[in-house]
Each structure stands twice: as C-alpha cells, then as structure tokens.
Specification:
This protein is α+β, with helices and mostly antiparallel strands. It has 3 domains: 207 residues, no CATH class; 212 residues, no CATH class; 129 residues, Heat Shock Protein 90, CATH 3.30.565.10. The chain is 73% helix and 6% strand. It is built from 22 helices and 5 strands. The protein has a 5-stranded antiparallel β-sheet, sandwiched between helices. A hairpin with a 2-residue loop joins strand 2 and strand 3. Helix 3 packs antiparallel against helix 5 and helix 10 packs across helix 14.
Length: 585
C-alpha cells in the first residue's frame, strides 16, 4: 500500500496549487483594482467597491452551491464509469449557471440605478456605484462560467490551461485598468469594465479546450436530465449555508468590536479581510482537493483509497496550511503597515495583534474544511450542516460574546481560534458516537459504513513501477483467485488479462522519462471477479482500440485481443490524470 499512497500524494499535490489559485482569483483581481482605484480615482472608489461586495457574495453563493453539488456528482459518476451521467450533470450545471448569470447581467445592465439602491448607495456614492455596476455587468456571465469550468478542467487534467487563464486574466485586468482609468479617464466605469473584460479573456482560454474532441465532458441539451438538479442543490447547499453564516458573523462581530474596541477594532478586522481570500486560499485549496479526490474514489467504492486520501490531506495538507499561518504571523508588522503606517497608533496595535493571533486557527480550520468536504462527498448532510453553522458563525459569535467584555478586541481574535477547537472536537465526537468508542485511527475517524467497498481479505492490490515487476503479476493473481474459490480456468484468464494489460501500459506509457506506476486491483464481489488497472501515464483508451480492431488482422494488438476475448464487460474513464480500466471476467 506504500506505493498506492505515493500515487495519491502525487495526485493530491498536483491538485492543490490550482485549487489555491481558484480561491485566490477574486482577491488577486481585488488587489489589482484596489491599487489602481486608490492611486488614480480616490477614496470614493474604495467605498463603491465595498458597497458592491454583497452582489459578489450572491454570485459566490450561487457558484458555491452549483459547483459543490455538480463536482461531487461528476466525481462519483466518473468513479462508477458512468460517463453519460457525468456529461448530463456537467451540461445541466452549465445551463443553470448561464441562465442565472444572464439574468444578473441583464439586471445590472438595464437597471444599474435600481441595483445600486438595493446595495445601499447614498447620494454621495450612488452615481459612482451605478457607473461601476454598468461596467461590471458584462463580466458576471464569464465570471460564473469560469468558476465552474476551472473545477471541471481538473477532472480532465488541464491544470496548466487554468494557470494560463489566470495569468491572462490578471494581465488583461491590469492593462485595461491603466488604459481605461489613466488614459481614457473613465474612472469607476472603466474600473468595472476592465474587470469584466478580464473575465472574458479567462473564459476564452478555458472554453477553447471544450472545442477539442478529446474533451470527456461536453455540453449537450439532449443529454440533460433535469432530475439531477435537486441532488446538485441538496449536496451543494452547505456552500450557501457557509456564505450566509459568514455574513451573519460579520454583522455580529462588527457590532461587538464597535462596542468593545470602537472603530479601530472594525478597521483592524477589515484589514485582515482584505487579505481574506489569500489567507483562506491554502485552507480552501487543501479542502477542495480532498473533495475532488474523495468523490471519485467513493464512486469507485475504494475504501482503502479514501483512507489514503484523508491521511494525505490531514498529515501533508494541514502542515502546508500551518506553514502559511506561521509566515503570516511572522509578517504581522509589515502586513499591518500596508494599511496603518503609524506604529504608535491604537489601530496599528490591534491589527498587529490580530495578524499574530488569527493564524493559530488556520490549521484547525483546514481540518474542519477537509472533513466537511469528506462528509459532503459521502452524502452526510446533517453533520455537514452542523459543522457549517458552527464554523461559519456560531463558534466565533458565542465565544466573542463571552470574551469581548473582559478582553476587548483580543477576546474577539481569540474566539476565532476557539472556533477551530470546537469544530475539531465535533469531528471526534461524531466519530465516537458513530463507532460507539473513541476513534483510534484515521479509518475509524472517517466512520465509513461497514458495507461500503470490498473487505480487505477479498481484494488484491499490486503496484507495478518497472518492467521487472510484470513477471510476478500473473502468478499473484492466479493464487488469489484460487484462494477466493474461483476455478482454474477463470483464475488463469484473470492473471493473463492483467499481465497483458500491465505490459501494454508499461510499454506505451513508461517511455516519456517520467516516473509512473500502475495500480492493479483484483476483487471478489459476490460471485463476480472484477479487475481494475489504474495508471498515471498519458491518456489511452484500450476499449476504443478493441472496438476499432480488424478481426481478420490477428498480428496486431495481440494482448488486447486476449483481454477482449475473456472480458465480459469493459469500462474505461480518464479523470484527474489517471487512466482507469475496469473489467469483469
């Protein structure tokens, strides 16, 4: 199992960077816009972008619901080799996102004054906000579509395309900000329009992939099953719940800070929130990578793989977040000086204190996020909702309510750390209740159902990392099949099929100079013998080759001909950079 864990770790760390960047995208654009606005427009621009923030939160909420639900369903269907159902969910998600974003764009374009009034604009800021809304109207559609496509492209191993799209978006935004604001003097309208056009540039980079034939996920009206909408919304609901709880927490915490620390306390928290997306990116990246992997392995009913994913997330991912948290704490003074250069001021003291205390909660928050995404992928919505409410609002608000009167702003900052302690305890208590004893391992902490997957004594796992490993494959599989009670003929056919398939992968996939491995699984499920070959080489579909073979030409693809002769069923999919071939002998 050591080599299996290595493949999963490699896959996990390949997913994390793009997940972090996806979370940080909004903050990166905000930083660019904030610098341009403060330098060339003035304080009014910051007020306008702050008033616009609730609309962004609505967009993020809808994206969170649809993306969370559709990504988990797609992962599960891919794990079950149900490519048609995967495409159905993808198409439905794209259609719903398009419809919502088109309506939102139309409302902002045709009724900017009404939207500005709904966002609370007063006489001073109303004109600027209307201009900004009009500029951003054209960008809502690509912004929402990009959030979805970026996630789906990871299933197709297109991380580099996402990186390229992010770089293009940032460059276009910065260049157009300068052109529209400094050169054309369009001020807030130009600021919004630059952001909108940068999202269109991002969208064109991402969407161009789906014009290629190799794309697994393709949009199709005919393939849409409207019945999938309810599971998407139900599974994705915790994403909206978290956003709502965070909004309520913001109101409550600001009120407490005004009471115990005045405007300086609120300003300190606002400084932290300005970096919020960047600080939260590592935590969310680890949690999102966990969700993506777990959903696929749940579809495959791979119990051991799920445990390995969670071990990787907890023992490799959380330390990454801890490292980021340590860096933030050490950089507390320079981060504070970005906003408040007067080191003798009270607001400087409070902000520095916050930047040193808040990082303590980040590793605990990562643990909570990992388990929320795991529970969400395994369809345990009650505990997901409990953790979402506690992590989003209840833990911080209740602790701050107790601590703020005695310790002021420091008590509010400490409440964030205690919130992480509470959520971690809830995960352990939940496992204790489900297991009826204190969990003593990661597997017990996950509380996987007894009937899920195949017991360890009915499965054989072999990892091939070099051509020399192939020679022992057939013998191991034949011995296992005999021990499971299968007849000699069936055992021999299983060993022969797996040896031929493994040799084919090694011959055609190991020659690129990179380190690769092939995971072989032989499973007894009832009276059925199931074989699975999983590799991290270039995409190759043996089933397509078998279907295209000329029956009269017996000299080519001899190994695949042998496999097709003995396979009752054969299924192939490619997800997350892995080829997965499943066979029933």
């Amino acid at each position: 199992m050591k080599n299996d864990a290595l493949m999963l770790r490699k896959l996990f760390f390949r997913l994390i960077p793009v997940q972090i960047l996806l979370v940080a995208i909004g903050s990166l654009n905000s930083v660019i816009d904030g610098v341009m606005a403060s330098r060339f427009i003035g304080p009014e621009a910051m007020t306008v972008t702050g008033l616009y923030m609730p609309l962004i939160k609505i967009i993020e909420t809808v994206n969170a619901v649809l993306l969370g639900g559709s990504q988990i369903l797609c992962g599960q269907f891919l794990g079950k080799n149900q490519v048609r159902r995967t495409r159905s969910v993808f198409s439905l998600d794209m259609l719903v996102v398009f419809g919502f974003s088109a309506l939102a764009s139309a409302a902002c374009f045709f009724f900017p004054a009404g939207v500005a009034n709904c966002l609370g604009a007063d006489g001073v800021s109303a004109g600027g906000l209307r201009a900004y809304i009009l500029g951003t109207a054209a960008g809502i559609l690509p912004q929402m579509l990009c959030a979805q496509l970026s996630a789906f492209l990871q299933l197709e191993q297109q991380n580099k395309r996402v990186y390229a799209g992010i770089l293009v978006m940032m460059f276009v935004n910065a260049a157009l900000d300068y052109l529209f604001i400094v050169v054309f003097r369009w001020e807030l309208f130009g600021l919004g329009l630059a952001t909108a056009l940068s999202y269109w540039a991002f969208f064109l980079v991402l969407a161009s992939y789906y014009l290629q034939k190799r794309a697994v996920l393709r949009f199709s009206f005919r393939g849409i099953d409207a019945g999938d909408l309810w599971p998407i919304l139900r599974i994705g609901f915790p994403g909206a719940l978290v956003v709502l709880c965070l909004a309520l927490r913001g109101f409550a915490v600001n009120a407490l800070l005004l009471d115990c620390a005045g405007r300086d306390g609120v300003a300190a928290l606002a400084a932290l929130n300005t970096f919020g997306g960047l600080l939260y990116a590592a935590t969310a990246g680890v949690a999102s990578a966990t969700r993506l992997l777990v959903s696929v392995y749940i579809g495959e009913e791979d119990r051991v793989g799920i445990v390995q994913i969670m071990k990787t997330a907890l023992f490799r991912g959380v330390p990454i977040v801890a490292g980021v948290a340590a860096a933030v704490a050490l950089a507390a003074v320079p981060l504070t000086k970005v906003f408040f250069p007067d080191a003798a001021s009270n607001v400087f003291r409070l902000t520095k204190q916050l930047f040193r205390i808040y990082p303590l909660c980040m590793p605990l928050s990562a643990i909570c996020g990992i388990f929320i995404n795991y529970y969400q992928s395994s369809n345990r919505m009650p505990i997901v909702n409990v953790l979402s409410v506690m992590d989003g609002a209840a833990g911080v608000c209740l602790s701050a309510l107790v601590l703020a009167p005695a310790f002021g702003a420091g008590g509010v900052w400490t409440a964030h750390v205690l919130n992480g302690v509470y959520t971690t305890l809830v995960v352990g208590i939940y496992a204790w209740i489900r297991n009826r004893r204190f969990p003593r391992s990661v597997e017990e902490l996950l509380t996987i159902e007894e009937g899920f997957g195949v017991p360890q004594d009915r499965r054989l796992a072999i990892t091939v990392r070099s051509p020399e490993d192939i020679t022992a494959v057939s013998a191991h599989i034949i011995d296992f099949c005999r021990d499971m009670g299968f007849d000699e003929k069936r055992a021999f056919h299983a060993g022969l099929c797996m040896e031929e398939l493994t040799a084919n992968v090694v011959e055609h996939g190991f020659g690129d100079g990179k380190r690769h491995s092939v995971e072989l699984r032989v499973v007894k499920k009832a009276d059925t013998l199931l074989l699975r070959v999983k590799d991290d080489c270039r995409r190759f579909n043996p089933k397509e080759v078998v279907e295209m073979m000329d029956p009269a030409d017996v000299t080519h693809n001899v190994g695949l001909r042998i496999v097709s002769r003995y396979a009752r069923e054969m299924h192939y999919n490619s997800a997350l950079g892995l080829n997965v071939l499943s066979i029933e002998v």
